[in-house]
Write a structure and sequence with these properties.
The chain has about 55 residues and is mainly beta. The chain has 1 helix and 2 strands, in the order H-E-E. The longest helix has 4 residues, at about 25. InterPro entries: Split_barrel_FMN-bd.
């Protein structure tokens, strides 16, 4: 598995208007094992299904 949410203890302050966890409000981070660094998550930069569509042609 390349990613999973673990050990999340949060209150309703991190939820969006639909009740889903908002990554910006959560102030989540990820660990990069190749560079041994932690990186903050927040800004969405693309949509997984569509971002590479132009490269597939």
């Amino acid at each position: 598995m390349l990613g999973e949410i673990v050990n999340v203890l949060a209150d309703e302050a991190v939820l969006d208007e639909k009740g889903n966890v908002d990554p910006v409000k959560l102030n989540a981070f990820v660990f990069d094992q190749f560079q041994s660094g932690y990186y903050a998550i927040g800004d969405k930069v693309g949509q997984a299904r569509n971002s590479g569509a132009g490269l597939m042609k």
